[in-house]
Amino acid sequence: MITATTPPWTLITPELFLKALGETLQMLGVSLVLGSILGVLIGAVLALTRAGGVLENRPISLGLAVVVNLIRSLPFIILLVAILPFTRLLVGTSIGVWAAIVPLTVMIAPYIGRLVENSLLEVPRGVIEAARAMGASPLQIFWRFMLPEARGSLILAVTIASVGLLDATAMAGTVGAGGIGDLALSYGYQRYDGFAMVITVVTLIVLVQGIQLLGTIVARRFRRR
Amino acid sequence: MSARTGATPGDRTEGRIVFDQVTKTFPRQGKRDEPTSALRGVSLDVAPGTIFGVIGYSGAGKSTLIRMVNGIERPTAGHVVVDGVDVGALRGSALRTAQKRTGMIFQQFNLLETVRVRDNVAMPLRLDGVGARTARARAEEVLDFVGLGAKAGSFAGELSGGQKQRVGIARALVRNPRILLSDEATSALDPTTTAQIIDLLRSINTEYGTTILVVTHEMDVIKDLAHEVAVMADGEIVEQGTVLDTFLHPRSPVTRDFVTTVVPQGLPDRVVEHLGGDGLWRLLLVDDEVTQPLLSGLITEIGVSVNMLHADMTEIQDHTVGQMIIKVTGPEERVAAARAYLEQRVVHVEEVAR
Question: Which among A56, A128, A134, A153 is the top mutation candidate for probing chain B, defined by the most B β-carbons within 10 Å of its own β-carbon?
Answer without folding.
Answer: A134
